[in-house]
Specification:
Blueprint: H1 2-14, H2 19-34, H3 41-68, H4 76-87, H5 94-106, H6 121-130, H7 139-145, H8 147-150, H9 153-160, H10 164-202, H11 222-227, H12 234-239, H13 255-265, H14 277-289
Helix pairs in contact: 2-10, 3-4, 3-5, 3-10, 3-13, 5-7, 6-10
Length: 298
């Protein structure tokens, strides 16, 4: 969309730091450093649990594979639960996240991509968040790219108040476990999770292997996949965006897919779209074996 590209270009031309976002990022990073002065096994366990809840159930299974690409369907209460889990990652509300990611797929590594390493690896990793408004206030563009969510009162409300869950969890952590729980369960866990997600934007569009010849720079990265519960199989994903499974080989560990598979087994997920590599290879072989059409004489 012309409006979208102009908005993104203006953001980069202004090259201004969003001090509200930058201030929160700085505070959370300082809190993450402080966590090492309050180390405890219980705090580490709480941190790991919340990292999985926010990063896998929330971002991977919820925001990405369910809301953005609709790779599967769930009852509304499951969709809403996964959405709330995602807000704990401090990556914005669902309409912002989904719209931004859909724009990324439309303009991937081209003019208009919100976070391509073509504009610099720092920009792709976190510069796009810190500079300008990062589309947070561009409600017209956001609703254009997420019309399905814009019709939902729940998603509109939680997009507006996405920070509320972080505040509630932060207060609960402090009341239950004091500074160790707060610094590890909120600050360190959030900062670590943010950088893991940002690596999908920067690292998996810069380094890795390519199984599919996509029209972008997407790659598969096993170490990013381990840090993001399976999101690092990014070339697989860009080749088949709707597929609920990103790790197409048995050794491509994809914990988000295992979670979706489990939901399906217990009857909480349906219409699960999954690409199978052997079927893709079979179709390619059929294309190669098909006879060339004879020229038609006029």
């Amino acid at each position: 969309m012309k409006v979208t590209i102009e908005a993104l270009q203006q953001t980069r031309e202004d090259d201004k730091i969003n001090w509200v976002t930058a201030g929160f990022m700085m505070a959370f990073h300082l809190g993450a450093i402080a966590a090492f002065f309050f180390l405890s096994w219980k705090a580490l366990f709480v941190s790991a649990l919340l990292w999985w809840i926010s990063g896998s159930l929330g971002i991977g299974m919820g925001y990405h594979r369910l809301l953005t690409h609709r790779g599967y369907k769930t009852p509304k209460w499951v969709e809403y639960t996964l959405t709330v889990c995602a807000t704990l990652a401090l990556e914005g509300g669902p309409i912002f996240w989904v719209a931004t990611h859909r724009i990324h797929h439309q303009y991937s590594d081209k003019e208009g991509d919100p976070h391509s390493p073509i504009d610099g690896k720092w920009w792709a990793h976190m510069g796009w968040i810190l500079m300008g408004k990062s589309l947070h206030q561009d409600t017209q563009t956001l609703c254009r790219y997420a019309p399905d969510l814009a019709k939902s009162k729940f998603h509109l409300w939680i997009t507006k108040y996405h920070y509320a869950s972080v505040v509630v969890v932060g207060v609960a952590l402090f009341l239950i476990g004091g500074l160790p729980f707060l610094t590890w369960g909120l600050f360190f866990r959030t900062v670590f999770g943010l950088h893991c997600t940002w690596l999908v934007n920067s690292a998996t569009h810069s380094w890795g292997s390519r199984r599919f010849a996509t029209r972008d720079l997407s790659t598969n990265s096993w170490w990013v996949a381990l840090m993001t519960f399976g999101e690092g199989w990014h070339n697989n994903h860009h080749a088949h965006p709707v597929s609920a499974r990103h790790g197409l080989k048995w050794y491509e560990i994809d914990l988000n897919w295992y979670g979706i598979w489990l939901l399906k087994k217990v009857g909480l997920a349906r219409h699960v779209y999954r690409v199978k590599l052997d079927e893709l290879n079979e179709r390619e072989r059929e294309k190669l074996a098909a006879p060339e059409p004879e020229p038609v004489s006029v």
